[in-house]
Amino acid sequence: MIPKEILKKVKQIQIRSSRLVNDVLAGEYVSVFKGRGMEFDEVREYQAGDDIRTIDWNVTARLGHPYIKRYTEERELTIMFLVDLSFSGEFGSMTQLKNEIATEICAVLAFSAVRNNDKVGLILFTDKIEKFVPPKKGKTHVLRVIREVLYFKPENKGTDISIALEYLLKVTRRKTVCFLLSDFITEGFERVLRIANKRHDMVAVSITDPRELEIPNVGFVELEDAETGEITLIDTSDRKMMERFNRFNTKNMEERAKLFRGMGVDLVDVRTDSSYVEPIMRFFRTREKRLQY
How far apart are CA 105 and CA 110, in angstroms? Predict the structure, then answer.
């Protein structure tokens, strides 16, 4: 049995996400994510104005007057979520943890997918594969995906994005739209990401807390690495040290953006101190504009 408090939280996310899908993302999802191609639909009689290149000459010869082939877009897609559940996601200096925001983003995109009859799958990972939920259709399945992201308790603490991407390549045969949600406080995944992006439509969703970029002047502070347990003592009143700290973090963010851009991987930058809706909308608008050219 699923505890009532879990069902209540999932229901709250469902209501909030459904409202966003209906009011904000209506039409955006369909216009950005196309199907796998065109599939045969039917043969019908030629009508004035039809493209003569679509004439089915075999049927035309057999019946004695022209017929054309009609095709429709094969709309069905598979949306995969790769969600980083390492312990650094359990941090949040604002109103929500990074993992909670990741859950809501998954919910919004998953409900957009199910509204268009697409399949949704899930890979939860740390420095190992923690959980795999095969792609399926339907609202009930989406609610399960949300519940897993929100309440699954990982066994490990670390991060290895390469393992998650390698697993994706093993369990998926057809091209998918893959959202990789992480704070990307790791390295060494570039080679596998480049390979995965050739087979799939990869979208990186980076979730950052402002305290990971800048720390206020509060004197001496002990910082603990959530994944390794290592503790570092820093003096936040040391202006030069804090300037180096801020420059280092800013440089990392810029290099990350440059890395994804160079691979042709879309990047959605989300922060815990502001709404994730605008970055997602900006991603949709940018991609739609790119598809028009």
Answer: 8
Question: Quick one: which of 149, 113, 155, 207 has its CA closest to 6?
Answer: 149
Rounded to the nearest 10 degrees, what angle do helices 4-23 and 139-151 cross at? 120
Q: How many other CB atoms sit within 10 Å of the CB of residue 37? A: 8
Which bin fits 214, alpha (ψ -120 to 50), beta or left (φ > 0)?
Answer: beta
In 3D space, the residue among 293, 181, 205 whose CA is nearest the CA of residue 257 turns out to be 205
CA distance 232 to 210: 19
Tell me the pLDDT tens digit for each residue of 32-88.
Answer: 776 545 555 578 888 888 888 888 888 888 888 888 887 655 557 899 999 999 988
Whether residue 90 sits in one domain with residue 216? yes
The token duo for 65 is 């007057």
Q: Is pTM beyond 0.90 here?
A: no
- Domain span holding position 53: 37-74
